[in-house]
Design brief:
The protein has no helices and 22 strands. By secondary structure, the chain is an all-beta fold.
């Protein structure tokens, strides 16, 4: 949330713009971001008035509608977006355009059977591959979650953690660790979820793996 203000002796006039960019101002190439803004007077009340939007970096983003602020991501990079009411303009707001993800797939093996010969046992790497346009997927968030069958205590842990970021080639990998002690689960189902900035899952998400434990 960002404010742009001007000094006025008339508190009934518009003195500030309150701006909100969804998804932290992030969108994929080819997607559209819809910002919101409110005009405020000196009392802090909302004023009904026309608010206009403009892109300051037109090679990165394009404002499709100056009255709604609908903004298209054209190229990977950061573009600046600005709102205006009369002579009052907001500070430039950063819109980050990232690679468009096409899909995600699980790389073999998707089934790992572990013989528990050590008190602290770890699985092979569970890997997913992101496909993107252009063909890079640097630092995209991949969320892994694990469910044991039957439920056991202590639960397994994911190594290095449950949320990681893909490499420059779109690869993300974790391992399942079964710590010492507690009841040995029969299996663990691991799901890998990848979403767009607006929360929409990409094609192929989630992907699942199965880790079986044997005494």
């Amino acid at each position: 949330m960002v404010f742009a203000c001007k000094v006025s002796t008339n508190l009934d006039q518009v003195v500030a713009l309150e701006i909100v960019l969804p998804n932290g101002g992030q969108l994929e190439v080819g997607d559209t971001l819809l910002p919101s803004a409110r005009a405020l007077n000196g009392h802090g009340d909302t004023i009904t008035t026309n608010i206009f939007w403009v892109a300051l970096d037109t090679t990165i983003i394009t404002v499709l509608d100056s009255t709604t602020g609908a903004t298209l991501g054209d190229l990977i990079g950061q573009g600046r977006l600005q709102a205006r009411v009369g002579l009052l303009t907001s500070n430039p707001q950063t819109v980050t355009v990232i690679t468009h993800l096409d899909s995600v797939t699980a790389l073999p093996p998707t089934l790992d059977t572990i013989t528990v010969s050590q008190p602290d046992t770890i699985s092979d790497s569970l890997r997913v591959q992101l496909f993107a346009t252009p063909a890079v997927a640097v630092g995209r968030r991949v969320v892994f979650s694990a469910t044991t069958f039957p439920a056991s205590d202590p639960l397994v842990t994911l190594v290095p953690r449950d949320t990681i970021f893909s490499s420059g080639t779109g690869l993300a990998a974790i391992q399942v660790r079964r710590p010492a002690g507690g009841t040995l689960p029969d299996s663990v189902v691991v799901s890998a979820t990848v979403q767009r900035p607006d929360g929409t899952p990409i094609p192929g998400s989630p992907r699942t793996f199965v880790v079986e434990f044997r005494p």
